[in-house]
Design a protein that fits this description.
Length: 410
């Protein structure tokens, strides 16, 4: 099976999603901030919304894979099981005694149940220790409401824990403590699941911080990488070197974004909806800048700029201009809809995208510009601040013709 993605808009063939489950039920007013949610989602409704998202993709012929299913299948492989168990137990927080007890507990679980615990975590009360409460000092001193294994509610945002560049997987290196463990799951799936046998990797966990929401494949050979709250300049530099060494791109635009929650990833202010068009948050469209990075004959990085992002992008993509579609019409609507992931569209093909229905003005703007919009509900899904692009990791897209090859078939 070849997985291949060289653009944001080539017809989508296969996508990786995570159907939210019991990990969302772990969110409480005590922990939602540190777990990066702005509200406490209604789990059943979030699942319905997510199922409708997946159905909309399937209706357009997209193959949908789920992280939970792939993980359970991966855990049937003995090496994968040993590795993932060892990684979740490695945290110094547990101490030796509790680590041994949790290890025993996990060893009795079948692959599906173990996958469930690795995603939803393990609460203090769910670990039934005998009359001597054999978890030692750590378990005794733990609050009843603490987690022995932390849940991963943000796995829903499948974009961030891995991203594909050409036929290479980039398992990322997540910045926020609440999300770090996500990449141990995507990494294990790509390395041990039979469907991904022979996959080549261009990035991996443990390297400098890099999140998939910051990586945009503007055109074949041209990447934009946002640096801000999540991806660091060091992460962008490491990715540039690796991508150039592997021959996966010729130009990388490094785009500084404000280090704020509203703009945590580049894809919260800019997504592509056509080979030559972006949907952009107007409050940043004119001020966003980019450093253009290429490799010289010796493989050293050459850095140019900063220049206005839209100019630098058009030049790198070999276009006269990059068309810009604005979010909302007035500054207040634009700000509201940007916060609700109006900018975070997922293209299924050129001029066809999935968007949250609530962003009425932004969707109307897209349609005025000739972009077909498939609207999905996201009242619960959006409480973690992520839209259709954040929730999806494309594994297969039809290779894109370069703009110079002429217009694409509709
Ligand atoms: N690609 C994205 N914009 N992802 C959004 C991730 C949202 C998630 N709650 C976080 O804070 O990390």
């Amino acid at each position: 099976m070849t997985h291949f993605v060289d653009s944001e808009v080539g017809r989508l063939g296969t996508v990786l999603l995570h159907r939210p489950g019991p990990e969302l039920a772990r969110l409480t007013p005590r922990n939602n901030d540190s777990l990066l949610f702005d509200a406490i989602p209604w789990v059943g409704r979030a699942q319905e919304e997510h199922d409708a998202f997946a159905a909309a993709l399937r209706e357009r012929g997209v193959e949908v894979l789920y992280i939970g299913t792939l993980l359970a299948e991966t855990l049937a492989v003995a090496d994968a099981r040993a590795e993932l168990t060892e990684r979740v137990l490695r945290t110094p927080r547990l101490g030796d005694t509790l680590r041994r007890r949790v290890g025993e507990h996990l060893s009795y679980l079948d692959p599906a149940a173990l996958a469930g615990v690795l995603i939803a975590g393990l609460a203090h009360e769910e670990l039934r220790l005998g009359w001597d409460r054999g978890g030692g000092l750590v378990y005794r001193l733990m609050d009843r409401l603490d987690f022995v294994i932390d849940p991963l509610p943000n796995l829903l945002f499948a974009r961030d824990s891995s991203t594909w560049i050409g036929d290479h997987a980039a398992v990322t290196s997540l910045a926020m403590p609440a999300r770090r463990r996500e990449t141990s799951l995507t990494d294990a799936i790509y390395r041990h699941h039979p469907r991904f046998g022979g996959t080549a990797f261009v990035y991996g966990p443990g390297l400098e911080h890099l999140e998939g929401g910051d990586v945009l494949l503007l055109a074949p050979g041209v990447l934009a990488v946002g640096v801000g709250e999540r991806t660091t300049p060091a992460g962008a530099e490491r990715l540039a070197r690796r991508v150039f060494d592997a021959g996966l791109a010729h130009t990388i635009l490094v785009v500084p974004i404000a280090q704020e929650r509203a703009t945590m990833h580049l894809d919260t202010v800019c997504t592509m909806v056509d080979v030559d068009a972006v949907l952009m948050y107007p409050n940043v469209a004119d001020t966003l800048s980019a450093y253009t990075v290429v490799a010289d004959a010796e493989g050293e990085l050459q850095i140019d700029g900063p220049a206005p992002f839209l100019r630098a992008a058009a030049d790198a993509m070999d276009l006269a201009t990059l068309r810009v579609i604005d979010t909302g019409l007035d500054p207040v609507t634009a700000e509201r809809e940007q916060w609700d992931d109006g900018n975070n569209t997922l293209a299924i093909a050129p001029r066809l995208c999935v968007a949250y229905e609530r962003n009425v003005e932004t969707n109307a703007q897209l349609e005025r510009a000739g972009i077909e919009v498939i609207r999905i509900a996201g009242s619960e899904l959006g409480s973690g601040r992520g839209g259709p692009r954040c929730m999806s990791c494309p594994l297969v897209r039809e290779p894109l013709h370069r703009a110079a090859d002429g217009p694409l078939p509709a």
